[in-house]
Specification:
641 residues, alpha+beta, Rossmann fold, Elongation Factor Tu (Ef-tu), domain 3, Alpha-Beta Plaits, eight-stranded mixed beta sheet, six-stranded antiparallel beta sheet, 16 helices, 33% strand
Length: 641
């Protein structure tokens, strides 16, 4: 079986293309829905094929590494409009990161809004690999009615829902075809010395040799061939499928990219399904995989074919199927018989950027939710789940809004757990801004032994990031040495909730004096005195709210970099600058400091200002003092919560 992934932005016609490819021959296709991807198995000219149709939402481009783990080639489905090339940029980036040979299909040519050479040029801005047009359109009355193959120089007229008719090359297309073919051969000769020599000597290359060169250069990723058509009318689909059959590599090339040694299979997706449990989608890289045989260190519980074809005894080289009752197999892993290993980094996508605190609607489901999130994280490497230290609930991080909906739906549908999901609150702190001296006497008498402790302290701001500092300069035993640790412990307790209601930090306390009672003093009494002394001192020492600031890296197509300044400024952030991305053509890395409270707004702002093409990574950088109405509002809301 040979396997391709069909990628592209929303509304580019990916699903139309997969259906058209799968219906080129009369045998019915088998389809397997798998969350944000759909797998279709079909036959073509005596070979078995699997096409993985990836959802086209912007966030899914950052998850494209998963299906590419199992693919011999990628087909990038694009709109016939050069102005929409930027929407393709994240998908091109994913394919380049994976090192997967790529074919471009310029779809919906019946509604083309630009010249194909302009479309190719616009796409070229986002890849280092040379995009070569393998066809040019035949137009009549402004409508595209066919295409000319630039290697064979054959002309084809489209027919509605059928394969195209071979026709004579129209005279009004001949000159354009000659120019386009010369340009194609020139690009191909950049990577083939023999072809270059033939062109220099003005010798006509043999057609068969040109197809062989095209095959090698596509598999080596020297070029990205571009084809034309309209999938909804089946126009150009046969030509694309034949190119895939002859020019895409087989599974041995994928095996080599994933290690090329003892690897048997790769796990590229997983789901938890009712009545089946965990199902891991695997593709066999070498040899055969049988039910019960060792994979990833344990036996395979069972195998299911695409489209629910149950009772499979084995999968052959290149075949795709579902491994069931095999908990040792996870997505994003490469398997030998004895062990599993993480798949290459390119398959992991971007770090999840959208966070939610997830709690069960019914408190009795807390354990079930925890178990469900663990299983979801095993099945989907693109999300993370960990306990939130502030709330005790789960902190779920996903790629975007659509990924969040998909994950929450899985919790309800597959695990029967209804949840509440809310954005996490920023972790504010507070500190002090002035030095004060405070004296506190703790005395309590209620019959029998009493409580007595007397302390004097100097409290002042510490350096940012210092946390809590404690020192003592008492003399003459006014506070016995064995009680001083209790004073420090009490002071630490006072930091748990400062005057503004938040945990306090960056406070330095010095114990300067005190008194004790031989009978009534105790650790408890001095701990209480230390706690109350610091509470009173912080109230008088000018409490200040501290807001967390994150260092943000935004990955953005260069055409949208200018919009980032207004995005960051509008979120009260600080622009640090930007650089060209050294790894990806047409991309910039934009750096900024941003309040953590703006994290949710940043996700939405990037989506609207860059057509969903940009994403960001964030990490905590420092705390910053916050004053005025904003600080008052935050403190008030925290007190009322």
């Amino acid at each position: 079986m040979r396997c391709i992934t069909v990628l592209g932005p929303s509304q580019s016609g990916k699903s139309e293309l997969v259906r058209a490819l799968a219906s080129l021959e009369s045998a019915p296709a088998r389809t397997e829905a798998a969350g944000h991807m759909t797998l279709t198995a079909f036959g073509f000219m005596g070979e078995d094929w699997c096409a993985i149709d990836m959802a086209g939402g912007p966030e899914y481009s950052r998850m494209a590494g998963a299906p590419l783990l199992a693919s011999d080639a990628a087909v990038l489905c694009v709109a016939p409009d050069p102005d929409e090339a930027v929407l393709v940029a994240p998908w091109l980036r994913a394919v380049e990161a994976a090192g997967t040979p790529c074919f471009i299909f310029i779809n919906r040519m019946d509604a083309a809004k630009g010249r194909v050479r302009d479309i190719a040029a616009a796409l070229q801005a986002y890849t280092e690999h040379t995009i070569v047009l393998r066809q040019i359109p035949i137009r009549e009355g402004g409508q595209v009615v066919g295409a000319v193959d630039l290697i064979s120089e054959r002309a084809w007229r489209y027919r509605e829902g059928q394969t195209s008719d071979l026709i004579e090359l129209p005279q009004d297309v001949a000159e354009r075809e000659h120019e386009a073919r010369a340009e194609l051969l020139e690009h191909m000769s950049d990577y083939d010395d023999a072809l270059l020599e033939e062109l220099i000597e003005d010798r006509e290359p043999a057609t068969g040799a040109l197809f062989s060169i095209a095959r090698r250069e596509t598999q080596d990723r020297a070029v990205i061939p571009a084809f034309l058509g309209a999938a909804s009318h089946k126009n150009g689909v046969m030509r694309l499928m034949k190119a895939l059959r002859h020019e895409a590599p087989d599974v041995s090339a994928l095996h080599k990219r994933l290690g090329g040694r003892e690897e048997i299979a790769v796990g590229f997706h997983a789901q938890n399904r009712k009545h089946l449990g965990k199902c891991t989608f695997v593709r066999v890289l070498s040899g055969k995989l049988g039910s019960g045989e060792q994979l990833g260190g344990s036996g395979v519980g069972g195998l299911v074919g695409l489209g629910g074809k149950a009772g499979l005894d084995r999968l052959g080289t290149g075949e795709v199927g579902l491994a069931v009752k095999s908990d040792q197999l996870n997505a994003g892993q490469v398997f030998t018989a004895a062990a599993s290993a993480p798949a290459p980094d390119w398959s992991k996508g971007a770090p999840p950027a959208l966070a939610r605190i997830v709690a069960p609607a019914n408190e009795r489901d807390e354990v079930r939710l925890s178990s469900a999130l663990t299983r979801l994280a095993e099945a989907d490497p693109m999300l993370t789940s960990q306990p939130d230290p502030e709330t005790g609930h789960a902190l779920l991080k996903v790629q975007g809004v659509m990924h969040l909906r998909e994950t929450l739906a899985a919790l309800t549908d597959d695990f029967g757990v209804d949840v509440r999901a809310e954005p996490p609150a920023p972790q504010y702190l507070e500190t002090i801004s002035a030095q004060v001296e405070e004296h506190y006497r703790h005395r309590k008498q209620s019959g029998g032994a009493g409580q007595f402790a007397d302390v004097s302290v100097i409290v002042k701001p510490a350096e940012r990031g210092a946390g809590f500092q404690f020192d003592e300069v008492v003399k003459g035993g006014v506070v016995p040495r064995n009680y001083i640790p209790a004073v420090e412990e009490g002071a630490r307790e006072a930091l748990d909730k400062g005057p503004l209601g938040f945990r306090a930090t960056d406070v330095a306390v010095t114990l300067t004096d005190g008194k004790y009672h031989a009978v009534d003093s105790s650790d408890f009494a001095f701990r209480t005195a230390g706690r109350m002394a610091l509470r009173e001192a912080m109230r008088k020492a000018g409490p200040v709210l501290l807001q967390p600031i994150e260092r943000v890296e935004i990955h953005v197509p260069s055409v949208h970099s200018g919009a980032m300044v207004s995005v960051i400024s509008g979120l009260k952030g600080q622009v640090l600058g930007f650089d060209r991305d050294p790894a990806y053509r047409g991309w910039d890395i934009f750096r900024a400091l941003l309040p953590a409270s703006a994290a949710e707004e940043l996700v939405m702002a990037l989506g609207s200002s860059t057509q969903g093409t940009a994403w960001h990574e964030a990490e905590f950088d420092h705390f910053e003092e916050l004053y005025g109405r904003e600080a008052e509002r935050i403190s008030k809301e925290h007190a009322e919560a």
